[in-house]
User: Fold these one by one.
Assistant:
Number 1:
Amino acid sequence: MSSVEEAIEYLTSKYNFSQKVGIILGSGLDVFNQSILFSIDYREIPNMPLSTVPGHRGRLDVVRVEDTSVIIMRGRYHLYEGYSSKDVVFPIEVLKGLGVDILAITNASGGINEAYVPGDIMLIKDHINLTGENPLVGGPNFVDMKNAYSHRLREQLKEIGKEVGIELKEGVYVGVKGPTYETPAEIRFFRTIGGDAVGMSTVLEVIKARSLGIEVVGISSITNVHKDELSSVTHEEVLEMGKKISKKLEILLKEWIRRGIRR
């Protein structure tokens, strides 16, 4: 039995999973706390790495959203914590094994696009992987990434955003390894190659999800914007802005799920 199979067997012995929709929450993001049906700490799940970064609870929840139950991973793992790319995508394999075939991956990111302001929500339309890692090394190979961030799901969210009065940006996410925040020269470079936001997560998870046939929508919360060489950022500020953005994010995701993420 593989480490993933062991984790899945343990979870299914604790709860009758039937969810098709999953959500991974990024730094400081917190939604659907009022309707938890089942909850288990990562430390209780066999072979599951532990979240070490503030703002990542390290807990798997099943929540009720309208008439739909959804799996939420409250916390993720990062390369900068010392984890391998295989560790980083372990939760993706677990979610797939539990039946998830639609996944909303969220993150906190820094704005590169100078039209952005802190508090914006950006739908990811594509990414640039500058982590130097790929979780598919060794197989499977040659996964098509042209529609990695589902156009279908993005269109649904854009439509809902207009109806509920939440403005959504749409842009390219640059994934870096971290843990340092970016230098001004790096930001200029990222802007030159077409980046709109930058962060230290997401890209490896999306690559793995697509290799497993999971349809993905990516959502970046813009917690700060790199506009000049003297501006600074702290993790505490990222977490605080994440809390504010969470309110809008929950409204958006709740309506999306309520409508049944129609096929």
Number 2:
Amino acid sequence: MKYLFILPVTLALLLCTTQCKTSKPQEEAFIENVLPIEKEIADSDFGEIETIPSFPGGEKARIKFLNDNLKYPPEAKKWKVEGAPIVGFVVDADGTLVNIKIRRSSGIPLLDEEVLRVTEKMPKWVPAKDKDGRGIPVPFTMRIGFKMKKD
């Protein structure tokens, strides 16, 4: 998604009660889907896709999960570094996420590691289905950005 979203409210409240005078968070994260990657799907043995994979509960639930679990790494905040790694994985035929890896690094290992950590925590997804209703593995990527709030 190209919409900005705010890190978990609890993190924001904690940061603000200890460090700031307003109720606004000190940093923001954003998510963008980068899939389907049509070339990647076409070049694979995934079969004909009838429905694409989805996070259980839909897009709002995925955003909430990421909101609740992403943490701006303290060292990255300290040095005011920003970046937007792209994480890729395959949603397997049973919904398990496999082959999770950074597809394009942010150039900041701390941010890349945080994205990997949270992606690995994700529950099973609703798998993609072929025209016969069987689950099929499909690649998925998403961009997760970290941006410091400008004063």
Number 3:
Amino acid sequence: MKAYVFPGQGSQYSGMGKDLYDESARARELFEEADQILGFKISKTMFEGTDEELKQTRITQPAIFLHSVITAELMGASFQPDMVAGHSLGEFSALVANKTLSFKDALTLVYKRAMAMQKACEHTPSTMAAILGLDDKVVEDCCKAIDGIVVAANYNSPGQLVISGSIDSINEAVEQLKEAGARRALVLPVGGAFHSPLMEPARKELEEAINSTQFSQPICPVYQNVTANAVSNPEDIKRNLVAQLTSPVKWTQTMQQMLADGMSELIEVGPGKVLQGLVKKIDRAFPVSQGDWK
């Protein structure tokens, strides 16, 4: 069974999507439509913007979404998913790929999500940290013992977990986890505590937008971050998408479940190769590839 997976924040780079635009009339149409939907030239920022500009949440999220979704569209008849998943923001790309959401509706939601998250970040100074080389339970127990908000946010692969919370609590957790034997424990250059209770204001804002958007019956199941299980019911997909903002991304568990359900090949669609690397940490010999649109 072919699984198509879509990356989240962190995969952006300056010049992203320029090759798509230059070589495909269909890509040009979609980029121009995106500029109109958003009300500014995101295509120009993607093609010419600095790394600093692309790091802004309100740019990063729609930019990665556009690169992923347009690449999938250009793959044409070769794009035949049996199952899809996306890491955090990538879940919206996955929902366009399996026909749950239209291009326009998904891009509108992605932008609302990005703006709501940026607002929540500005409201409470917060951050995230990557912890390498410890069992998940050790990290979880450390977070629970700290006074203040700090939670497991991204279960990326065995031995790689990202925590999220207030700045003081994250700094304290990093020190404690180093003492507990973490191979690395480093604060990440992000604007806020994604996938933590500090995103509650953004969750409320996004819930309203999601509930007023048309979700269709998908052509194949999406393995959602919140449950790590296959979901096909549009109402369940909506609920999980809302919960995702304040819940951890269970990517390790998602990959394990997809493997258990018969995934025989993983194809990453969008910028970068991060997700291919993560599944290799679960099964080094597993066949992975980059979605090829040419």
Number 4:
Amino acid sequence: MEAQEKFPISKVLMALLSLAVLVLAQTAAAAFGSLVLLVTHLPALGNAAAGVLYPALAMLGFWALCRFGLREPLSAWRIGPVRLKPVWCVTAFLMPALVCGVYLLLPGQWAEAANRMDTASILAVGVLYVGIGTGIVEEAVFRGFIMTALERHWNRRTAVLLPSVLFGALHIIGNELDLLSMVQLVLAGTMVGVLFSLVALESGSIWNSALIHGVWNAALLAFLHIGPEPDPGSLFSYLPETRNFLLTGGDFGAEASVISIAAYALFAALALVLLRKGEKKGIS
């Protein structure tokens, strides 16, 4: 039997071009949304236009990358037809519900930002752009192209860990964080990246992790903000009394807190158990 040819490093590097597709799609969608706002003077419509265009442009770019660069179909990169598994559909809503529920048990108060955006604009950004758009595009890049390329070139463990660390580290960009907050953010980002990676591996595609990612973003950014100050981009804001950075998530916020990290770890463990169970069935 002939040894299988190792997946070339040149294609690993080409898969990294998916990051460029993400940036270009995001930039073009934001510019188009601004143009719609300029013409219509309707913030919600501009936000909705950007939210719809972002994943559409990105998927077009991913198709072009596969067709003309990698010479493989999108399905080879875990971006095939949409198939959702019940366990991950439940997880998508249960995980933010658990985290928010824990926070609401802590002493605190409800507040509203003085300059809060209108409800339609918040939903357009939170559901379409930050939720659906970001969930699909980031999962296609990190759990589709990058994880698959590293798995085919090296091994699964490397494929899960490296993109997850990168995913966590990239969230530092654009945020003013002290050292402790940076460390906590990278740990949280890595843990949630591991969760998304294991879900993608267990389900065989990015769509289940994209659902979990998108619902999480929408829940914690658009529907309920948890932090020391009200957020004008959220429908509701809850301000816990505690100032313990482990509980607050430091300068980044609740998504980097130990409460959230514990939730990521819990569902990552579930994904790992299901993945190993599925592999044993495959062997037998």
